[in-house]
Records
---
Amino acid sequence: MGKLFLRLYLLLVFTFAIFFAGINNLEHILKGTLEETYGDLSKGTLHLIDKRLAAAPHEQWPDLIESLNKEGGYRLRLQKLNEIELPDETLARLNEDRMVFQNIFGAHYGYKRVRDSNLVLEFPFNQSEYRHNQHVSSSTFKLLELELIDYPQAVWNERITEISKQFTFPVSLQRLDDVSLSGRPNLDLINEKITWHKIDGEEYIYRLIKDSSYVLKLGPFDDPVTLDYLESILLTCLAFIVAIAVLFWVYPLSRDLNRLGVSANEFGQGDFDTRVVVAKRSPLSQLATTFNAMADRIQNLISSHKELTNAASHELRTPIARLRFGMEMMQTAIDTSERERFIKGMNADIDELDNLVAEILTYARFDRDRPEMAFQRQDVSTWLEEIVNQAKRNMESVSLSYNVEGIKDKYAKFEPKLMARAVNNLLQNARRYAKSKVEIAVSIDEETFSVYVDDDGPGIPEKERQSVFDAFKRLDASRDRDTGGFGLGLAIVDRIAQWHNGTITVTDSPLGGARFIISWPV
């Protein structure tokens, strides 16, 4: 779960990093839109400035610009074209008679070339929205007033109608009594200050013409869609980017879930060879591995169950047949001693059946479920000595010796009861086939702990050494019932070794028989 969360979190962080990198470059992205917007808004104002400058000698241009600056708006400046440092592409647009913008020390400056000259008008664009609108429109109002005061008030409406054709927004004239404002805007208007006001979301700018009862009205202004809905556009882009990022994450997850569902359905319908295949980096990789391990386990259990059923039926058939034969013979027996001999044989067959059933149940339990493994740190020599002492009681016919040299005060970690059963099974197996001698030894190094069980019996052919650990597997030499055993002891040893992440192997013994070696990590 931690890896899954980390992947999704890093993916979202990467997505937001890209988004905010775009926000940081928003000025560059919207530069063209801003230039076009402010160029349209200032078109009429710049036309009037050009007209005033064209009607006056060049020497008077600085005074004319200074008179406009006295209106309290943004301070205009006249600069020579070769004195302005602009990027080549911006300079090219400026020479095309377009308004351009440049960020200088965190402030935005607009530039417009004066017609038929090598001079450029410079004006800043930085303040609050109200003050900005006052400043940006002050020169426009001043120029409009200058256009009107040369004419009688009776023709002002006609003049405004004619002049407004040069603007991209409405320019109108209203009487002061017809303007409905209140509070600060109304106070500013009466005091002949520029007033900015919003009506139903539309922006308007007013100014009372000096020494008159007329008010100049500019607006409403149509902002481009990219500015009106900039926030919505950005949020939509963010949602789209996040959706794409999540899609790239969810699609492989959905695909792998479908694969897992299909495999589970096929497995449930009896196709036990079905396995889930997903990429190692998939979020469901661990789940797929667990499913495949479960499928392997179930398949092995089913196979083992079939094998156990077949083998058990075969193993049970022989003593049952002997019992039936013994009963028939007992019915035809002539004297008491003969009946007792048959009864004794039948009791032996019953004991064999009892032992076989016990062994089968034990193997089935070991093969079905892994028991609770209570690993303990054990003194190896003491633990082994107890096992040998118990095993000697059942080894009257052979000698049992053990070597614990070099492992005094040595410790290993394992499940003592299960490992004791494994070693005891190896000793009992060695006793069955040994001629006269069985030896047990132990070795321990930094990584591995090993137990060696040797006998001087006939040994095990190399080609049959791997199969000797299969359930109900008995070699030709062990088929005689006198040797005992059902071929389950070594299978149990193999399973216990696996539970300890160890191995069980068989090789030639120095005594001439077989050597069994069970090893597991220390």
---
Amino acid sequence: MATLKFGFLSDQRTKIVLGIGSLMFLVAVFAACSGNDEPATQVAEPTATAGSAVVQIDPTATKAPVDPTLTPVPTSTPVPPAPTATAVPPTSTSEPEIDRSVVEYFKTSDSVRDLLAVNGELFITSRSGGFVSRRAVPSGDSLGSVRGGREGVRGITFDGETVWTADFSATEVRKFSIEGKDLGRFKVKSPQGIVFDGLSIWVTNKDNGTVTNLDLDGSEIGVYEAGQFPEEIAFDGTNIWVTNPLDESVTQLSTAGEILRTVDLGIGRQPFDIAADENYVWVSNGFYFLTRIPVLEGSIREFVVGRMGNSGGLALSDDSIYVTHRQGEEFGSVSRLSYEGDWLSTVIVGGDNPYGIAVIDDIVYVGLDFGNQIAAIHPEAMAAGAPTVPEGVVETELMIDGTEVALAGVLAMPAGPGPHPAVLMIDGSGANNRDGVFTWRQAREVAHHLALEGIASLRLDDRGIGRSTGKVLDTTIASRIVDATDALEVLKQQDGIDPSKVGISGFSEGGVVVAAVAAETEVAFVVSIAGPVAPHRDLLLLQAQRFLEADGPATSYIERVLSDVANAHNTILTGEGLEELERQIELGSSIVVAPDYIMGDPKELVTTWFQDFLKHDPGPDWAAVDEPILAIFGEKDWAVPAEQNEPLLREILAGVGHTNHHIQVFPVTNHFFQPAISGAIGELGINPREFIPGFLELISDWISEQISDG
């Protein structure tokens, strides 16, 4: 389930609060800045400190705050034809056992925006000071700096001999030698992204929907249409690619300036950065996603990376892609993926939204957005290691040919002959891969624990994620019920599985799904982990209340805001005043709360998706479950508050005479069943990446008891 964080805009004439997630992004158009310019001559770097210090990082003390959200809903489950599954050779890499302990840092004169590798050296652009710093690597020693812009430098590129920068505030492109000699300034409207195509320079014109092509002498070759507000830019060896955050798309142009195609990334997929080679274009987008677009032909794929915030800087090496993202406040990190999207490693580097990233001699350099630092991650810290499947566990990758889509998953089996009991694991809402939160593979941890206790499990990539087909944004609770039913039937058919002892487990929104499946399909048992029981409208109101109370405003103010939430929900459900609500959302003049990784665009709040979600009530499905039930809640869970859902489940089960159930609230525990202080989202970056003691044992012991022949 998702949690809430409120963004309060200055226009209070319309107060509409819609909620199921963390802070959504706000699209802003930047105006040109004013200020006095300075000559672009070689200067001493104002406050840079040469040298580096070794800092020990403890990656086990943090975790990526993926806050699952609910998806909408009809509750009826279509009865599919019997799905089939095919075992395929495992191709994903499990989380490696690697040394992530050493990350070096060196100081810069300003917080960092972009990094550029030039002839084995590092050029660093500042967010606000306008300087471009030149550094030796890996030492970080300063080699001087140059004024690359009036204020913050928006973009930087290298043409093989000279360096070019995009100076947004002065509406010009600057050119200088590696040593810092000024070679010219050229007027370009609102320059932002900049790239060299092998012959000339391309610059996005952020505020007027065009790109400018410059000859290497600075003369203008042409200005071409490229979308509403183009920002970042990349070259794939043949064509130019430009991001359009407002349109949530990327545009491909020929080097003659002709638009070849526009790729719609989907609602909530605002692109942050773009990188390309001759095979693929990579776009970091939304709040958790990385999109891979084939340059020539093939299907577009999407991968879950981890919370990006306003980060998402990208860098490519010969065999990997690196992306910056955030674990939580002050816990920025870098993840390494294979070109097939397999997660290889994540290293915590600090910062809130680290952005600039470059790779030189296999060392990954990352600019931190505060602290005026560059983090240098050595190769051994990001190396891919051997898969860490415990001895006694055997994993097989399956492709399930389901009713509507093909689902990829991993069957984790106890070593030795069966038949074994088994459980189908259904994850929370949003787009998730089979293993769970990106830098803490908690779903895999549960699966391995169960296998070591003699219980097999099947865990899945969600629709549109990893190797599963379909589209993430088309997912609803109804479609998840279809997929879960398909996967359940396949699990029962696997060699070594006792079909009479197959149950189903759901985390967060997955608890909603398993209740619906168990109400219609025969299973051996049902496990709900932080699963909602209350009607979704009631759940959202309590979420909003918890977040408001944590911020400490007056009771009267909280009551007014909660009234706004209820009124907005009524508007969405009834359709009365919907046009005005849509208009206010488009204008950005409302107070809007939305999930940060699946509903990144406020337009989603007035879709059938959200209308269906608001109508859903899991209670009737829970009342229809006859099988044994284990329901676990966390005392400090803000997403699915125990005080609301635990007593309601007891009441529902008592009302229908259900007797074989165990309901337990773990004290001092958050939504992910980690040790917690308050359970607030802000703690997720510092919570230990481990389950609270007794959590895993409760699940395996209870399942073993239910399927015991004794």
---
Amino acid sequence: MYGDIIAKADKGMENGKIVISMNMNPEAAQKWKKLTAANSPKNPQDPNDRGRCIAIVMDGLVYSAPTVNGEIPNGSSQISGNFDQAEADALVAILSAGKLPATARIVQSTIVGPTLGAEAIESGLLSFVIAFIVILIFMAMYYNKAGWVANLALLINLFFIMGVLVSLGAVLTLPGIAGIVLTIGLSVDANILIFERIREELALGKGMALAIKEGFKHAMSSIIDSNVTLLILGLILYIFGNGPVQGFATTLCIGIISSLFAAVLLSRVVFDTLLNKKVNLSFDNGMTRNAFKNIAFDFVGRRKVYYSISAVIIILGAVFYFKNGGLNLGVDFKGGRTYIVRFEKDMNTEDVKSSLTKVFENEAPEVKTAGSASQLKITTSYRISDQNETADKQVEDILKTGLSTSGSKFEIVSEQKVGPAIATDIVYGAYGAILFSCLVMFIYIVIRFKKWQYGLGAVIALFHDALIVLSCYTIFDGMLPFSLEIGQDFIAAILTVMGYTMTETVVVFDRIRERLADSGKTDVFGEERNKLINFALNSTLSRTILTSLTVFFVLLVIFIFGGDSIRGFIFALLIGRIIGTYSSLCISTPIVVDFDRKKVA
């Protein structure tokens, strides 16, 4: 039967069993009445007289063939059987999808062989465990007993995130991992913000109970503002993005809510419990007690030096762009097929490329090493627009024919295909979501901080960061033993930079607002404004550096121990962490001065 006659299909329960209900349009209902009548049992009283089956078919495949028990006069039918939840969901999807007039075909697929998959899981798990232990040790060493409270909150936070992802049936992708890494940073960031404010209160001579109360109170505004801006980013990316962007947004949104609960509420409950039990608390030790004290960097005065450094990097990126003949686009952005092939011995990439060019009808593929000379990454657009259902198998067979001339045994451990249409959707979806999120965050910052210069300065800093990341990709591509393609890794790096920069910039803006409120002024200009911005940057410097270090430690450990399959991806996040810190200190806030020149005294 054809799907265009079905108006609606649903799953339900009847007598403890799953049933599928479907309703047909009025015209089809009349035809359905005749069809079911013709195939109903002739003698319903005879148990051996059963009706005939009517098949549910899509794209030439029979997905179900229920038996007709009687005439159905109104087009409302029900399919019963021993369905489990997955089977029922699949059948409902087939009945609903059958309404599409076009034949379904696979336009994007990823296949990972068991060898590479097992290696990726093992190395990824090992690296993440090591990185997590590094953070726990760092927090305990720097903040003493309070650090263990932060560690407890971090463990609970990670437990919540994983639990929610499992309950949603989410598939963890590379951008999803980026979201989790950013979430770990958020959780640690919230605790560091609170702890640094508590240390400030203790330095003023306040008692431990009052210092903790005031610390949580003063840090809350910064935590709320920084997390709200990120939540706006995550929601917009989830709604308007697709593919890797949605994976990042899903874990980010879950992580933000979880982090606020674990790092703020649970931490406060633990501290109150310890205070009630008269436990002697401490937020530092002999080595960290005077860290970041009496720092007075002139960030505003040196802003033109920072602008020059950024300009040099961007210009170098442009030079390498033309030198390399454009960007190194991955299949995510241009469409094509990518294969990871493992050989028994080291291979020469040019020799393999020459052999494959012959079998690919003189269409030269891209051949690069993937971690070692015995493992190659082969990318080709050969027959990517071929609509034939057997095209993928034919291309793989041709690839094997070309590789068989290498004189070495080989194994295809991973393959990925992205059709041109999907690649275009990913590009426009990612860029559109990023631009729209910048607009919304600009509006939010203007409303919260009552100055358009702050909003515009922050958004321009985001575009600055994107150009710096892009420049780093073009400069270092080909110099490193792993690929720096512009694909999912690049999207993840850009989104991570946006998250870091916005979070840290909002924290500085919040300190400026707090300082103005304490002085009884609504705004200051000229030299007084420059001093205020420098004060805000220096007073939050400990939080900025510590948060950056904790996340950097996580990424560095994963980069070293995480295996070849994600090394390029983690390198992208390392770039993002460095640039995000640099931009928040040296670009986003100092640039406000240049947008407000008309008020300079």
---
Amino acid sequence: MIDTNGGLTQQRNRELLLAILDRQGLPGASDEELARRRACSFGRTDAGAGLFYYPRSFFRADGALFFIAGTEGVRKLFIVSRSELPAGFSGSRYSLAGLNVLEAGLSYENYLAAKERLPFLAPVSLRGERTTIGCGDRLGLAGPGHIRAARAYDINPVLAQQSIRELKLTGRSYPEVVKDAAFSVLQEGFDRGYGADGDHLKTLADIDVAVDAGMPMITLDLTEVMNPAPGDWNDQAVEAAFAKLPETVRARVLSDYAGRTFNLGGDPLTISALEAKRCGLMYWKALEFTGEVDSLLRKRRGDAYDLEISIDETTTPTIPSHHLFIAAELARRGVTVNSLAPRFIGEFQKGIDYIGDVAEFERQFIVHCEIAKAYGGYKISIHSGSDKFSVYPVIGRHTGLRVHVKTAGTSWLEALRASSRFDAGLFRTMFEKAYQYYPEALKLYHITPDLSRIPPLAGIPDDQLPGYLERPESRQLLHISYGGLLTDPELRPRFFGFLAAQEEAHYGCLQDHFRKHIDLLGVPRHG
């Protein structure tokens, strides 16, 4: 006997959805009318029977109406037209009530077809934008919350941001990261432009993969081509090693930097001959590689790319003379630098506030900002930038908001915050399992929490569980254990099922948390 209940329910939902659209006059609405409706709409509209749609997602292109809707927590791309449907999409095609309908999955292939009709779905270079924030999304579900936080401010979000490490731990790919961000953009009707960042990439091959997926921003991690060892060498060792460099390199370092004083707008900065030689030993090979990467990006994307230089993955802070050497050499080589991430004094650990002397951080940060202004005006980039609330006012003030703040794991923590509020059992299970996955995760991340300070969950009332998202130790435990938790066969379906059911709660946590970041930076609101 064939069970037709599912098919009948699906048919009824389709008919109900189209009846709602027709009653609102949406199939024939003009672009202007759709824009007006988007401006006064918010969130998701539930129409009963598990049917829902997103009022902000309605756009017209090629005579067809594009929007996102779904049933029972499964979102899909719908295209509705009174004439022929556009080609290039895969999905179910049918006709109802005089309308041709395409019901398509949120796949990368359908994203590629959709962005040809709705160009704002494709990520763009944000090099010309003053203030940007990298909104790492390890789940592929946080984009709407990020957009809701950013859209009221003079700030541009980089919605798709993942490193190779994160991709491996979550089982995702760059095409998946980009299409998830793009459909979030459609869902929220965000046509202002967003970025996508292949984060902490180290090889030309990985950069090509990210660019192939349409990512305009590349964060180049120079860890494997830098030579940090001379930073700790004595004078004799530096001199001996420098003498072995090619004569052309030695001549450039000595003539351009050794013993020279640079006026940056504040106090003058002098680079001693020894420090100049040390810089040549530490950075020359990395700078040569940076030139190769810049050439690759220009060849692949013309001028529409954002190259970020990352020198923050080191054990010691980037002193101003080294930052200046790097900046000057990048400028001399004609590298198009959008942003540069030094390793700042103090500790920028994952998921918690700044650890260190804020006054000393400010003193040194001012010099880093002066160097950036003197060598092309690139943005200073703040890595592990989430939750650094005590130094955001300093960062915003001295960069003049020409800054990129990079976050990642804080969005994952906000998903956990939602579970702590609305599904205590799920949160308790995930929290206890985090201890199981923590030792392996600790091999990949530099954090120093004392886990013994975390109170046991047993006996803690449910209404106090969100407090674990405020404690630095438990935040870091959860922050870095995401790989194991998200691939755990028991937890994954429960967790993603919860997020589908509590979508607005998830977005609300994200929106509130990111607004705190943006407000403390001093970013003005629109209007």
